[in-house]
Amino acid sequence: MSLFKLNYQNNNLQDLVSEPKLEGAFSSKLDAEPLAIRHWVFDQGNSESFKDLVNNVEITRQDPETRERFNSLILPKEVGKALLSDIQCTGKDIIFAVVKKLPDAPNTLLIAGNANHEVENGGGVLLNSTGSTTVSMRCRLNDGTTPSVSSTRYAQVAENEWYFVAGYIGDLNSTSSLAIFMGPDSYGVLDISSSGRNFSTRFLGVGNAYYENHPSATDTQIAEFGIIQGQELTLEYGQTLFEHSKQRMLKRGIKLFNVK
Asked: For residues 114 and 89, is the Cβ–Cβ distance under 8 A?
């Protein structure tokens, strides 16, 4: 069990008095998610949190204005404020994160994976919430259509509660699928045709990266973000990811909302 020295003194008027600051780093070194090719866990006062747990690759900040909390980051809602990985989506990719549910607001962008408004240059994938009711995994195809699979269980998460979410885009070279997982009883999958489909060359990331005409309505607070390649997101594998995340977050003082 990790022990933290917390300071409730409010030295910054932009911080809430009720939110403690971490003095020093977390005492327990967290392990990367097994099979992840990239995995970042964010916290205040620890520059190492911007470095990938798998191989120490630093995530790229589009803008230095990330506001740090003692166990997470807040990414501003404006376009160009995202964190970008060095990984391009190639199909059969899982992106996962622990995010705090935001107040009721439409078009709250959570994770942009090759988000692409230039449809003619290829497709993209997007994991986002739409108001307070659903969170969806979407895939932009070359023909301009955007199939999606959603979890309405997102509506059960109370505002300002932490939750785990994973989205998946299947193999491009065969009949493919989209999938989303939020909790033990929250899993959805959709088969889609892969005919003539490809992706843009943009990178997987988190925050409002590319959608100038799809603004995020509120800031995004995030505790971890990871990428897994070559592994299908099934209900069983989603449960494994969820359990691993629960244990990591407990070491950081975060209790995940158990969506049922």
From this structure: yes
DSSP secondary structure of 2-46: ----EE-----TTS-TTSPEE-S--SSPPPPPTTEEEEEE--TT-
The 10s digit of each residue's pLDDT in 217-256 is: 778 889 999 999 999 999 999 999 999 999 999 988 899 9
Angle CA 20–165–48, to nearest 5:
50
Cα separation, 182 vs 201, in Å, equals 27
In the DSSP assignment, the letter for residue 242 is H
Ordered DSSP codes for 112-135: EES--S-GGG-BEEEEEEETTTEE
The pTM (predicted TM-score) of the whole model is 0.84
Q: Are 189 and 148 in contact (CB under 8 A)?
A: no
Helix (H, G, I), strand (E, B) or coil at 102: coil
What residue type is 221 in one-letter code? Q
Mode of pairing for the β-strands spanning 162-169 and 148-151: unpaired
Which helix (H) or strand (E) segment holds residue 250: the answer is helix 235-250
Q: Is residue 4 pLDDT above 90, yes or no?
A: no
Q: How far apart are CA 66 and CA 209, in angstroms?
A: 13
Q: b or e along 195-209 (b: 16 or more beta carbons within 10 Å of the residue's beta carbon)?
A: eebebbebbbbbbbb
For residue 170, which of 223, 225, 231, 121 has the smallest C-alpha distance? 231
* Distance between start and end Cα atoms, the chain: 27
Q: What is the CA radius of gyration of the chain?
A: 17
Single-letter code of the amino acid located at 5: K
